[in-house]
Amino acid sequence: MRTQALLATAVALIAALELPAQRGRRGGRSEAGGPPATTPTAAPADTAPKKASRYVAVVGGDVYLGTGQRITGGTVLIGDDKIEAVGLNLTLPEGTEIIDAKGKCVSPGFVCVLGNGMGAPRTGPFADGVNPFDPEIKQGLAAGITSFFAGSTSGSGPTPGGNNAVIKLAYGNLEGMVLRENAVVGLSVPLSLADREKFQELVKKAREYIKAVEEFPAKKAADNNLKEPPMPPGADKIVAVMRGEARLWISLGGGFNPFGLRRGGAARSNDVDQIRAALEVAQWLGEGVVLQKPMSAWMLPEAIAATGSMVFLCPRDHVPADPADPDHTGSNIASAALLAAAGVPVAVTCPSGPYAGAGVGTGGLLGQDLNTPNVDAAYAVRGGLDNRKALRTLTLDAARMLGVDARIGSLEPHKDADLLILDGDPLHYATFVETAIVNGKVVYEKAKEPLYQHIQRRNQ
Amino acid sequence: MSKQLLLVAAAAGLAAAASAQDPAPAPTPAPATAAPAAAATTPPPIQFETWHPNRPAKEADYQVAKWGPRDLPSPGYAFRAAKVLPITAPPIIDGVVVTKNGRIEAIGPAKDVVVPAGYERVDCGDAVIVPGFVEAHCHIASETFDLNDTVHPTNPEFRTLDLISMEHDQIRMARAGGISTTLYIPGSGSNMGGFGTLTKTWAKSPDEALVRFPGSLKIAQAGNPERGSGDLGTDMMGMSEGLRMTLLDGKRYHERVAAWQAGKGEKPAFDATLDLLRGLFLHEYPVSVHTQIYQVVLQTLQELRLELGLWTVVVHGTFDGYRLSGDLGPAGVPVAGGPRQYYHDRATNRMHGLLGNWSLGGQHGWRDAVPGLGRDGVGVNTDSPVIAQEQLPLQAAMGVRMGWPHEWALRGLTINPARFLGIDHRVGSLEVGKDADLGIWSGDPIDPRSYVEQMVINGTICYRRDAKRPRW
Asked: What number is the ipTM of this complex?
């Protein structure tokens, strides 16, 4: 009974805090109809909600919901591995274990749209390859990462492909580590003229297949001998994207290479044509796509928004403008701000290149890798993104790119209990993770792990 | 300028006692002391002096090095901002910096500073004004990238002076990132890459941008130059021998020239390859040494500083090199740290912040705790383009994250590298008579969320941030 009342409180609270326009259809299929496994199941009205076997409450911190909102002095109530409620002055079930977060900040765990290592194998099946005792997991948790995207997104020609998974840093818990496999498929643009045609053909077949499957039960009732419609060859990934079960990530021809650029050669200063080609794919599918590290997306935010597409980028990746055409070429540190202003979800990732990369290995250079994911959100702020909303680039909007926003990315009831207790503003460069909780379990405590326990915060 | 103005400036805090500026950072345990529960006190700053004996007292006394021009015409400005950080004096709340003809004419609280008639008043609002940053290890002052000509194992005949250009993208990014002075040096492809140039990041021409040439001789002790292995003698002993022989050639040449100048002996035939090496033995400029790990920093200390007596600056001192801070400190060898800012000690599973450890001391592995180089012995560098030049302050931020006091980090971006390189009479702090190089920032310059609103170099506003299309 008490829990029921509590849930009602939580729902009311979240309703009161309802999100800005971005929380619409755009890129948000999983809310409407993701696969059952990843959709939070609200308690049906006629049955009593299942009582958790263990309650933990993180009490008194400044709670950043990950949606852009913040509750000062709030409480996050965790029941087993899910968030039960978030709010002010919650009534806590008897026997709730209290974690005091007064004077601290509480944030959803960071979601990295690109990553490697941290217990994940290079290729799938990921459920068989993860190592829940990889020491890098602790380092990732110390950096605030609770989930990341591992694996490949390389398609071939017109057929989207990839072998990847969303990995959770559930240290010591094998079963809790793989959130979803192959949630993302990849495609490279521009497609050749032949592949363009083939891709459109596959989309057509996929659409017919989806329709046939929808109509199948009714037709089966009329004709019991009718066989289930077969999946058209090569269309399975496209079907998954059109059903909102997978996200389509588009890579835009030749990668960004700061060294190539600095040698005055390889790097492009303008990828508008590729972005338009990607948006064309989105239109064919009737489904937004994810643009990977575009340089020039800031030049056409409205066009991107119109297709429901999303963007992840590294705000500090820099490509000079062509002096002959400065308004239509080159990168822009304001990219994230300009895109977000148009309603495009934006996530951030760290630089790539020979001395950077999306890992926590100590062979790289601090500030250029995943040991400080908040630095890239900070650079988005430098470019004009609202300081309080910028956390979305590491939380809810990042989860949306992976199609797992129903599970992770914000502190809302029924979502996975993946959260951080931080010693300061999440986007401040000197902020450390004091406690990381994944799937409701404390998996990292700065004071108890050797990694950073000897470092005391220097600057507020 | 009016006497009154200068007097006001002097009264405004420039003459403040050095002790009053001491940062007294928040008490914290020394990073990486053996016991995590060690007493929560920061060791008092260690006295540190860069070692350059008999350095010429005035620019005019330099024989080999050439100094760039000063007092180039620039408009009269009075920049007023919520906070002015002169670095070598306490912060000024609601401060004004008056500049003209390339120099700072006055600095102090707005209520005290009299702005001369005809000077343009620039209201910078809530901004923070800091000195332009000084980069001690830069490879991007020209449009070319590859500065690794390796004609010989040692190449004292090379110099970067002729390559500098002022209007390419990377140097624009540098000034948009608040960096006004760089030591532009050859790469580490050979043990002696050539002579670097100290240059401003903006001027009407490379000649006007010049601060000093040579800025330093670039030496790479190890950790790159050994790539050409084989019979060239490019393992540790061979590399040390090559450096020693070339430097001794230079020393002998210097001694012959000095003897001739003193009226003893004949004038030696001019040797273009060795001529600039003379300046090293006149202590006009340092060797800036690419040296990283414990073993190699030890070689740098032994060979270059103790054996050959050179003014030695360790640049991009990373990995576990900080374990030698107790030896480098007394020898007056400073360190510009970066771009690598941390080191994972597998023996203890601890992450070490290198700038903090260089400054405050530290310990890992087998070695006893070392005392550190203190507040004044450590600077920051990027090794641009390894880290993009504009991300120099991020290097400092990562240092602070890992335990370096914030106020020390600001010094590490400004006055410390200026002192290491012997240009602190021109740049590195906001003081009357110094170059008018001001970074006008939207907030704490070390926070990546802050940006440069305006950049002033040699008294000229050379960058204004465009909110719609900010460069950086």
From this structure: 0.89
Q: Which residues contact A294 (CB under 8 A, 6 or more apart)?
A: A252, A271, A274, A275, A311, A313
> Given CB atoms, is A133 within the 8 Å cutoff of chain B?
no
Q: Quick: pLDDT tens for A99-116.
A: 999 999 999 999 999 999
Helix (H/G/I), strand (E/B), else coil: B58: coil
Amino acid residing at A96: T
Q: How far apart are the first and last CA of chain B?
A: 36
User: Which residues numbered 372-411 in A keep a CB inside 8 Å of some CB on B?
Assistant: 372, 375, 378-379, 381-384, 387
Nearest CB to B451: which of A135, A382, A427? Answer: A382
Determine whether the interchain pair B339/A384 forms a contact, defined as Cβ–Cβ distance below 8 Å: no
pLDDT in tens, A355-370: 888 999 888 789 999 9
B111: left (phi over 0), alpha (psi -120 to 50) or beta: alpha
* Of B35-49, B319-333, B335-349, minimum mean pLDDT range: B35-49
B109, containing H or E segment: strand B103-109
* Cβ-based burial of A363 (10 A; exposed 0-12, middle 13-18, buried ≥19): exposed
Residues of A in contact with B31 (CB under 8 A): 454-455
Q: In angstroms, rounded to a whole number, what is the distance separating the alpha carbons of residues B206 and B209? A: 5
Alpha-carbon dihedral of residues B410, B414, B419, B423, nearest 10 degrees? -170
- Estimate to the nearest angstrom the gap between the alpha carbon of B178 and the chain centroid: 14
A353 burial class (0-12, 13-18, 19+ CB within 10 angstroms)? buried
For A278-337, the pLDDT digits (tens) are 999 999 999 999 999 998 999 999 999 999 999 999 999 988 887 777 777 889 999 999
Own/partner long-range contacts of B196-200 (Cβ < 8 Å, ≥24 apart) = B196/B159, B196/B160, B196/B288, B197/B141, B197/B159, B197/B160, B197/B161, B197/B164, B198/B68, B198/B421, B198/B423, B199/B68, B199/B141, B199/B164, B200/B68, B200/B437, B200/B457, B200/B458
Report the C-alpha gap between B258 and A252 in whole angstroms.
63
